[in-house]
């Protein structure tokens, strides 16, 4: 299998369905793509009903293209990240990894058009993030939940309105931002810097006003990011957490227990927003995003400093802070159900507190005149 054959296969996979987001190459399965959240096989000629270990390895090696660093990472760490370009067609973020001694590859298609906050119908909080001058902002969620896309929309809004220098540290570069009002320098892990910590430390000497860090992966990166936020920079980054409130514990987990008090103080003064995202199946096909949002105020600062307590949980603060752009997943999902964007089953499957969403759905159904229970035929037994 040569590079031309790999490019032909990738082209067939892209053209097989509309709205393809990921390409999956795994031993024992045919070539597969993910479309609207579902993994489906791709018909090939000649057919590949079950890929062999040799076929997936050759496919992976063509993607790596004899790159020594990537090959060493794959052997030493069991996986490697890279970017791949299909000329005139698409760009991909690729992860090649070992599983049971065989190689698999997952290619995430990267959009070429820079999204806008309006196009994505993001909450008002994202517009406020684009207007922040300093501090640190985290966009969190599972892999593939759209974190990078949302951050690209924020940077696009900045690019339209402010004359500032922006440094991005990415793995790999996903959206290529043109120079509009901003001056962009986009650096890629492995090509332009060796670790996020080193790239972030160097960025402090490159006179940016805004720094995008692809992911906070370790203690050193978090510490330098906090220092950058404390010295007047706006730092944007991502974490893998399932709720906005959980992000604080995740950040504290990078440090020793003796350092917790100091780190809580630094976080309380530097965090501006934490936004967590989930993608839900949309009624009629496709997916729709739900958001869990925390903005900084005195109550949030107190909960970061002293930890959550009864009546002072992040969830309760978010419920009370709706007027300031905050929301919980549950509130957002209930609103999606009200608009008809998601089904009741989907709403209950993706929510954080099933009882809260259940009550919200029942209230909406009651206002619509719909039944709120499946129980029928009950009668009061008459007294003799």
From TrEMBL:
Pfam family, one: T2SSE
Transmembrane segments: none
CDD domains per the UniProt record, alphabetical: PilT
All copies of domain AAA+ ATPase, residue ranges: 133-264
SMART domains, sorted: AAA
GO MF entry, a single one: ATP binding
Family, as annotated: Belongs to the GSP E family.
Matching PANTHER family: TWITCHING MOTILITY PROTEIN PILT (PTHR30486:SF16)
NCBIfam families according to UniProt: pilT_fam
Name listed for the protein in its UniProt record: Twitching motility protein
Lineage, uppermost ranks: Bacteria, Pseudomonadati, Thermodesulfobacteriota, Desulfobacteria, Desulfobacterales
């Amino acid at each position: 299998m040569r590079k031309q054959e790999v490019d032909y296969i990738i082209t067939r996979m892209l053209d097989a369905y509309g709205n393809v987001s990921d390409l999956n190459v795994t031993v024992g399965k045919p070539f597969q793509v993910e479309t609207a959240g579902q993994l489906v096989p791709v018909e090939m000629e000649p057919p590949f009903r079950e890929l062999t270990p040799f076929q997936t390895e050759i496919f992976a090696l063509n993607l790596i293209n004899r790159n020594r660093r990537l090959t060493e990472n794959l052997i030493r760490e069991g996986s490697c990240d890279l970017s791949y370009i299909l000329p005139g067609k698409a760009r991909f973020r690729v992860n090649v990894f070992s599983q049971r001694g065989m190689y698999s590859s997952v290619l995430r298609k990267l959009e070429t058009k820079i999204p806008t906050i309006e196009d994505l119908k993001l909450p008002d909080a994202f517009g406020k993030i684009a207007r922040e001058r300093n501090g640190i902002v985290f966009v969190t969620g599972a892999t593939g939940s759209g974190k990078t896309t949302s951050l690209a929309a924020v940077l696009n809004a900045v690019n339209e309105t402010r004359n500032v220098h922006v440094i991005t540290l990415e793995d790999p570069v996903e959206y290529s931002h043109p120079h509009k009002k901003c001056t962009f320098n986009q650096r890629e892990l492995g090509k332009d810097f060796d670790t996020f910590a080193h790239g972030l430390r160097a960025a402090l000497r490159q006179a940016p006003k805004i720094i995008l860090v692809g992911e906070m992966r370790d203690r050193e990166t978090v510490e330098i990011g906090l220092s950058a936020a404390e010295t007047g920079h706006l730092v944007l980054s991502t974490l893998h957490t399932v709720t906005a409130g959980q992000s604080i514990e995740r950040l504290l987990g990078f440090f020793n227990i003796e350092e917790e008090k100091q780190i809580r103080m630094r976080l309380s003064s530097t965090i501006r927003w934490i936004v967590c995202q989930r993608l839900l199946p949309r009624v009629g096909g496709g997916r729709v995003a739900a958001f869990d949002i925390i903005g900084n105020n005195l109550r949030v600062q107190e909960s970061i400093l002293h930890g959550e307590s009864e009546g002072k949980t992040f969830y309760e603060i978010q419920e009370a802070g709706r007027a300031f752009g905050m929301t919980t997943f549950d509130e957002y999902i209930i609103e999606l159900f009200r608009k008809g964007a998601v089904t009741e089953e989907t709403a209950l499957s993706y929510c954080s507190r099933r009882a809260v969403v259940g009550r919200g759905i029942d209230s909406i159904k009651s206002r619509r005149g719909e039944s709120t229970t499946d129980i029928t035929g009950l009668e009061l037994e008459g007294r003799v």
